[in-house]
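Supplementary Note 3. Input sequence used for the single-chain structure prediction.
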Amino acid sequence: MAKVLRCSELMPFCKAVIEGEDVEEVMAKAAEHVQQEHCLPTLPPEVAAKARAAIKDE
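The predicted structure, written as discrete structure tokens, is reproduced below.
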């Protein structure tokens, strides 16, 4: 089952929806998204933990 992360659950006003086959793929895409769209060089550990918890089955 595919996994999905809605960035708005972590960063209000961001409408990005990140999808992947598993949690690891979603997290890798989330790290890339944070760098490109939110101007953060890396995904901070506390944000990563919240993101991982917010990933749902699609």
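The chain has two helices and three strands. Residues 3-57 form one domain.
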